[in-house]
Amino acid sequence: WAHNMAGVFPLVCVSQPYAWGKVGENSVVAQLKAANEGSAIENKPYAELWMGTHPSGPSQAHVGGNTQPLSSLISSAPDTHLGASTSASFAQDLPFLFKVLSVRTALSIQAHPDIALAKTLFQKFPDVYKDPNHKPEIAIAVTQFEALCKFRHSSEISKHLHDYPEFALLVGKGAVDQFLTKTSNGSVDDKDALRSLYEAFMRASPDAISKNLEALLTRLRAQPSDASSKLDQLLLRLSDQYPGDVGVFSPLVLNVIYMNPGDSLFLGPNEPHAYLSGDCIECMATSDNVVRAGLTPKFKDVDTLLAMLTYSQEVPQVLKGRETGEETDTQDATVLVYRPPVPEFQVDSLTVRKQYAPKTTTGPSILLVFEGQGTLHQDGVPDLALEKGSTFFISAGTNLRFTSPSGDLVMF
Fold it and tell me: How far apart are the C-alpha atoms of 273 and 257, rounded to whole Å?
């Protein structure tokens, strides 16, 4: 294939060895990368697999007999590879970054800026905020997955102020009383009350944090095991992972979400969240902007975080993929569509039992083979083998057909 012709291009992708990643064979990221490259799995963290053009982890594309950055392939003929409308809307670049995450210890409590804030942060602090884009994202669990997301309702927070006196002492009597008064002892949600409480919590002195955290841990560890709730166990686990970090208290104010394989969670801008454990497929706008505020040894930008959050209080919706209609849930194949409320991306989950021909897309795609084996067919071109870990860039408007003689071929 010439680089200016549409088609299907095998990718070599970067894995990120962040310290929170699952180690060695336990990591889905490691398994996929090793299968794709025929390489050995080392005894180190494999946290994220990046599929896309972001400069912090750019994919390489096989074009003819050579490799070149995927970004170069796209920029050589952006209208061909992205489709004219995508190319025009997103400055001739791939509008999404596709990832697999394998989470061993919690990621930092974070939020992603909206576009206006991202531009400001990028101008002011380009060494911390590396691009001027927003980062809405969707996570799709592929193993049991656990996350913190959005603020709890006031009723739950006020119960935790009562049940966890160390948390109330950390926040301080003035802030607690004000919160309980403004929310009528937790019976109403009030953004200002929540903001004041969260601010007092995030700005607590190091002394207050270590003293109250120590008291909490001593009390929880002394409990008989049958008295220890799931939430207690999570607090103990986070404190083992990040000793002395104020973020250990976060599950008392943020919702804890448990997801089964196939469940998805959409994370919009300016909402607090943290992944805690498990493996997921993730897709986001092409950005790496993260405002962090806890459960991290990295720079904590507490001022920016407190100012940017929406302080909306709700339990996030955990969604299944929508089956896209009768024709795609047949004996031959099942297709689930995860369509978030943003223009940059959607994710499809394909399980091919015999054969499937997807509708031709008007924009670019990246295909990841998650498990199984099969073949990718295009008209007039040699077939491509599909096996676990295979990753491809697919130009806009390319007609494809998948076959799987040996049973379930699972792809995203």
Answer: 10
Nearest CA to 273 out of 57, 45, 103 is that of 103
What the block records as the tokens of 300 is: 């904590």
Burial 170-201 (b: 16+ CB within 10 A, else e): bbbeebbebbbebbeebeebbeebbbbbbebb
In terms of Cβ atoms closer than 10 Å to its own Cβ (0-12, 13-18, 19+), residue 63 is buried
Amino acid occupying residue 96:
F
DSSP state of 352: E
Nearest partner of 214 among 180, 187, 248, judged by Cα:
248
Active-site annotation, residues: 292
- Residues lower than pLDDT 70 in the chain: 1-4, 323-329
- Identify the CA nearest to 256 among candidates 138, 366, 146: 146
Contact in structure between 400 and 348 (CB atoms under 8 Å): no
Kindly report, residue by residue over 32-51, the tens digit of the pLDDT.
Answer: 999 999 999 999 999 999 99
Predicted pLDDT at 329: 59
Residue 293 in contact with residue 302, Cβ under 8 Å?
A: yes
Q: What angle do helix axes 206-222 and 230-241 make, rounded to 10 degrees? A: 130
